[in-house]
Amino acid sequence: MADSELRQRKAKAEPETTKPSSKHDDAQDDDKASFYLDILRVLSFIVVASCGLSYVVTGGSSWTWGGVRLPEYARTVYWKERLSGPMYMTPEELAQHNGADTEKPLYLAINGTIYDVSVSRHIYGPGGSYQYFGGRDAARAYVTGCFAEDAVPDMRGVEEMYLPIDDPEVDAYWTTAQMEEMKKQERAAAEEKAFNALKHWVDFFAKSKKYHRVGYLKREEGWLDKMPRRQLCAPAQKGRSKRKIPKV
Ligand SMILES: *[C@@H]1O[C@H](CO)[C@@H](O)[C@H](O)[C@H]1NC(C)=O
């Protein structure tokens, strides 16, 4: 016990006794240390400045130039929405965010929920392949695939694209009662398909790491009833087929 303590003390004392030039060395070490400290200062300044600039340039969505996406809670928009409640926009206000004005963020809506798609200006902005989706709720177009024609939120009748076409020759196979029952089932299945087709895109935006939700569309009461009913667009209509007679 006493022995080991002595050894420890000796070890502690050793540097001072065996290094006569320690003062000089220390001065050199200090120089080196401050040199490295300076480099470190410069480097950390560059990193912080780059992050700050990235944050400003990417509109508060990334500290790393979009390389590493921030978790949602680290984005300002996330907190903005939580602190001040969600933002509501009329369709006219949303239209101002179709990308034509590059000073404004580019928004789109799907089934009433608005997303910021500014990072994909080349796609959703003017001239982009999905330009019809920018600045509006084009829910119908996502499902029918008729981008230009169906860039509206009206989903009424979209399920028809999943319904078989009536054909007297083929349909003669079933009795009237059978046909009535079958048509009911076909319609229910078609409505579910249309819902799921839209849901696919609703979920796509909701789960996207790239786009974040900024709010909701504020539409006037009875907006849907005021829109004229539209026909199923030709390409979607073309995709329909006749009933198949079951092989027995
Ligand atoms: C679309 O919005 C309506 C009304 O808010 C909602 O009832 C429906 O479930 C939504 N559809 C999808 C596919 O999310």
UniProtKB/TrEMBL annotation:
Annotated InterPro entries: Cyt_B5-like_heme/steroid-bd (IPR001199), Cyt_B5-like_heme/steroid_sf (IPR036400), MAPR/NEUFC/NENF-like (IPR050577)
GO cellular component: endomembrane system; membrane
Domain of life of the organism encoding this protein: Eukaryota
Gene3D superfamilies associated with the record: Cytochrome b5-like heme/steroid binding domain
Segments traversing the membrane: 42-65
Keywords linked to the UniProt accession: Membrane, Transmembrane, Transmembrane helix
Region of interest: Disordered: 1-28
Domain Cytochrome b5 heme-binding residues, every copy: 89-169
Family membership: Belongs to the cytochrome b5 family. MAPR subfamily.
PANTHER family given in the database record: CALCUTTA CUP-RELATED, MEMBRANE-ASSOCIATED PROGESTERONE RECEPTOR COMPONENT-RELATED
Record's protein name: Cytochrome b5-like heme/steroid binding domain-containing protein
Organism: Emericellopsis atlantica
